[in-house]
Amino acid sequence: MWRTLALASVSTIALASASAAPADAAVKAKLEPVASGLTAPLAMVQPNGDDRRFIIEQDGRVKILTKDGKLLPEPFLDIRHKLKPQWSDFDEKGLLGIAFHPKFKENGRFYIAYSAPISFEADLAKQFWWSHTNIVAEYRVSADDPNKADPNYERIVTAIDWPQFNHNGHWIGFGPDGMLYISTGDGGYANDWGIGHNVTEGNGQDLMSLHGKILRIDVDGGHPYAIPADNPFVGRMDALPEIWAYGLRNPWRCSFDMGGDHRLFCGDVQQNSYEEVDIIVKGGNYGWRKMEATHCFDYVKPNDHPANCDKNGLILPILEYKNCTAKPDGCMGISVTGGYVYRGSHKPWQGKYIFGDWSKTFATRNGQLFMATEGADGKWTMEPIQVVNMDGPLPYVLAFAQDASGEVYVLTSLTTGPVGGLDTIYRIAPAE
């Protein structure tokens, strides 16, 4: 479970506040297995102009799924020795993200995000009390074998010290502009409070913290990176120039729409009462910890939402639904998992956003799949996806993926921790 532009007024992005829908209102789909025997798969990415799909496992391996659906037995990359040790029953650290350079076919460069032991360069207080360092690093393909990464090359791009084990975010992806985007959670624990958090406003609202943000950097323009000149806070003394958007709690899985206006969607895991999905825009403030989804938030009393708060300049989510932790009546999950806008061959699904929730409970797996539709008026609605070819609850929903043809996949696990080698990736297909 991954719990874990300043506007003049509240954004007019329309919101769907969802509750459980009757079974006959659900979208019907089937799940077709495409890869199995995995350990906590957190991303599957197909580079531009490449038939292969690259799968990251949370325990530190990158594996290749070939065009004909064969999972190669030897990993493309193995960084298990670089990771902070993981807890087998549940952990949010690990190999968290992968992105391929837009010119990967020519330059062989790709990037991974992972949780390493706390940096020795951190001050003594961090070394004693903080959890780990989240790293984004550049790698390249071996000159001798296109199915192997060069084991002797790594260039650290970013290294952000992390106070707690959770809320890491660290989806990474290249935008249509060629820039690398990085999602970061608020630093962990709960309520954006505690060691490593801004005492007065929380990390999400602190523009001098890289936690609780969407970052945007140019990996081609400098070493370790350059700041794009059009980033929203460039030139300000009270904000870090890497920041593209802020006010996020734990943006767990983001994606650019491969069609339309190429908007950036993120599922942002909230606290105990609600979950939200956002469309990220330049300079946007998404409210955490002032708000939980569309509701005012008090970090001292997280389950009691004040009737009023200062919403000036905040952007509302496009979707919210009740979290089963504190709002069991009509709830739909406990930890949102961001997905993809469908651009595949099934015309009725064109332009719809497929996403999910890790589970409706922690103790027993009960993953949820949803499909969201944007109306002509800009308002979003969401419906559950009913899987017709599987009996009983779904596995835990870890992440989603999309191939070059626009088809969408769900990455699942049978366990709460990064162990076992029992996990499966499915293609989400229409039931008919």
Describe the structure in your own words:
The chain has 432 residues and is an all-beta fold. It has a single domain (16-430), classed as Neuraminidase (6 Propeller). The protein has two helices and 27 strands. The chain has helices at residues 104-107, 124-129, and strands spanning 16-18, 27-38, 41-45, 53-57, 61-65, 77-78, 95-100, 109-117, 132-140, 155-162, 169-174, 180-184, 213-217, 243-246, 251-256, 264-268, 274-280, 291-292, 295-296, 319-322, 336-341, 353-357, 368-374, 380-387, 396-402, 408-413, 423-430. Strands 21-22-23-24-2-27-26-25 form an eight-stranded mixed beta sheet, with no helix packed on it. Strands 1-20-17-16-15 form a five-stranded mixed beta sheet, with no helix packed on it. A hairpin with a 2-residue loop joins strand 18 and strand 19 (295-296). The protein is globular, with a radius of gyration of 20 Å. The two termini are 32 Å apart.
In brief, what are we looking at here?
The chain is mostly beta strands and 432 residues long.
Pick out the low-confidence regions: 3-14
Structural class: mainly beta
Mean pLDDT, rounded to whole units?
A: 94
- CATH class reads Mainly Beta
Give the strand line-up of the largest sheet: 21-22-23-24-2-27-26-25
CATH topology: Neuraminidase
Strand content: 35-45%
Distance between the termini: 32 Å
